[in-house]
Amino acid sequence: LKEKGVKVIFVLGGPGSGKGTQCANIVRDFGFTHLSAGDLLRAEIKSGSANGTMIQNMIKEGKIVPSEVTIKLLEKAMLENGNYKFLIDGFPRNEENRAAFEEVTRIEPEFVLFFDCSEEEMERRLLSRNQGRDDDNIETIRKRFKVFLESSLPVIEYYNAKNKARTVDAARPINEVFESVKIAFSSFDK
Ligand code: UP5
Ligand code: MG
């Protein structure tokens, strides 16, 4: 992947902060390929893979699936795709995810886009999404928030300390958030 000249941007933020929504806009305007780690894991469940039941149980509990499983899916998706610019949405979710990805792929992100949003707003969005996701119920949502605070925020702080995090106020209307996203991407050559 590194030899392919692959460039990666991590898109991070709490559950319901708008990662998927904004990635669709970035794909349209900046020519990236969107890889949602959560979507890849859900596709793996549907495919009936040997890991499917384990993944399904972890998602229902809001827990983080072992790195090797997620990284394999991400690597495969990047290798199969002709593009070289990828948005990796919802990964890395903990320190171990981050270190393992770097170790395995030797890729460091160009930067990390962080969608900052209050829990109150994220909860409202998730409860009204209605796409039949197993984890969009109040019990699992609370667990997802806890895991985000305890395990995922430290990853954002790690990149922030390296001056690699670009933080966007995600608690605004979709179009306004995208205006800030465009600014974050403006220094990245198309
Ligand atoms: N919406 C979006 N933006 C809005 C705005 N500005 N104003 C008003 N409404 C807005 O948006 C959520 C909802 O809000 C939508 O209805 C949207 O229209 C509306 P969305 O763009 O879907 O938000 P997103 O941040 O993508 O929310 P998502 O629920 O996908 O985030 P999660 O991080 O919780 O979910 P993910 O799919 O990444 O992971 C799910 C689970 O998979 C994890 O909990 C974990 O168990 C597992 N997982 C791993 O184990 N490892 C991984 O690496 C990744 C996932
Ligand atoms: Mg999403």
Automatic annotation (TrEMBL):
Monomer. Its cofactor is Mg(2+). ATP binds at G16, S17, G18, K19, G20, T21, R129, R172. Belongs to the adenylate kinase family. UMP-CMP kinase subfamily. Keywords: ATP-binding, Cytoplasm, Kinase, Nucleotide-binding, Nucleus, Pyrimidine biosynthesis, Transferase. The lineage of its organism: Eukaryota, Viridiplantae, Streptophyta, Embryophyta, Tracheophyta. Catalyzes the phosphorylation of pyrimidine nucleoside monophosphates at the expense of ATP. Plays an important role in de novo pyrimidine nucleotide biosynthesis. Has preference for UMP and CMP as phosphate acceptors. The gene is PYR6. Binds 1 Mg(2+) ion per monomer. It is an enzyme of class 2 (transferase). This is UMP-CMP kinase. GO terms for molecular function: kinase activity. CMP binds at N97. A ribonucleoside 5'-phosphate binds at R42, K63, I64, V65, G90, F91, P92, R93, R133, R144. It comes from Platanthera guangdongensis. It catalyses: UMP + ATP = UDP + ADP; CMP + ATP = CDP + ADP; dCMP + ATP = dCDP + ADP. It is found in: Cytoplasm; Nucleus. Its main location: cytoplasm. InterPro entries: Adenylat/UMP-CMP_kin (IPR000850), Adenylat_kinase_CS (IPR033690), P-loop_NTPase (IPR027417), UMP_CMP_kinase (IPR006266).
